[in-house]
Amino acid sequence: MDERLFDLTGKVALVTGGSRGLGRSMVLAFARAGADVVIASRKLASCEETADEVRHTTGRRALSVACHVGHWGQVEQLADTTYREFGRVDVLVNNAGMSPLYDRVEHVSEDLYDKVLDVNLKGPFRLTALVGSRMAAGDGGSIIMVSSTAAVRPTADVIPYAAAKAGLNAMTVGFARAFGPKVRVNCIMAGPFLTDISKAWDMDKFRERARTMMALGRGGEPDEIAGAALYFASAASSFTTGAVLAVHGGAP
């Protein structure tokens, strides 16, 4: 295999929700593959921690930007800051998300509903529109949505989140058509990963369910997202666009 297929030397990758969990793993994978990275999340200090790790372990440039992707004004500032600092974006990952639980669906407030849709759907739409249009007018690029298996197998306690992630799956196909042929737009539909979110799970119940219902019998480690992310970010996926790739350990 030609390892240059996955080489990101000279590229710039922007990752929302990039300071922890799956986002952090993708940031580090891109940097190790040669890319300079922009790390965006609501907490600047957390972004700086990941940026320092990138600089110390890979020597790549790393820019930290505080951004709440649910606010279009902040999304626009993120895009402008990135282009001002680097002059380009070659890889965009819409990874930031939130999934607050509720006890009964009738207790979902308008505020909670709006927050979930804003972060998981509205923000990625606006950032993809801004960055994708510049990519299409320039040298092209790759855009990666991070969805969830809840998009196709929603449970009763995450209905707004599941609807937003289903929207991301649909936007993947729509944006692939809008920005092709120079820009590829794909989606990682993630299953249960053992990130900070999993700290709120009943792990005994989860392990038993995983053992009996998932083909691999376990949850994913955050670094296990890196292969799919590198595939979509790099020339390895040069003929892949509008695709939704399930990375879920064989979850039913």
Q: In terms of topology, how is this protein built?
A:
Blueprint: E1 12-16, H1 21-32, E2 36-41, H2 44-58, E3 62-66, H3 72-86, E4 91-94, H4 110-137, E5 141-148, H5 159-179, E6 183-190, H6 203-213, H7 226-233, E7 244-247
Parallel strand pairs: 1-2, 1-4, 2-3, 4-5, 5-6, 6-7
Helix pairs in contact: 1-2, 1-7, 3-4, 4-5
Quick overview of this protein structure:
The chain is α/β, with parallel strands linked by helices and 252 residues long. It is built from 7 helices and 7 strands.
Characteristic terms for this protein:
252 residues, alpha/beta, 7 helices, 44% helix
| Proportion of residues in β-strands | 15-25%
What is the overall shape? globular
The CATH superfamily label reads: NAD(P)-binding Rossmann-like Domain
Order of helices and strands: EHEHEHEHEHEHHE
- The assigned CATH architecture is 3-Layer(aba) Sandwich
Describe it.
Helix 1 links the parallel strand 1 (about 10-15) and strand 2. The longest helix has 28 residues, at about 110-135. This protein has a 7-stranded parallel sheet with strand order 3-2-1-4-5-6-7, sandwiched between helices. The model has no long low-confidence stretch (mean pLDDT about 95). The protein has one domain (about 5-245): Rossmann fold (3-Layer(aba) Sandwich). By secondary structure, the protein is an alpha/beta fold. The protein has helices at about 20-30, 45-60, 70-85, 110-135, 160-180, 205-215, 225-235, and strands at about 10-15, 35-40, 60-65, 90-95, 140-150, 185-190, 245.
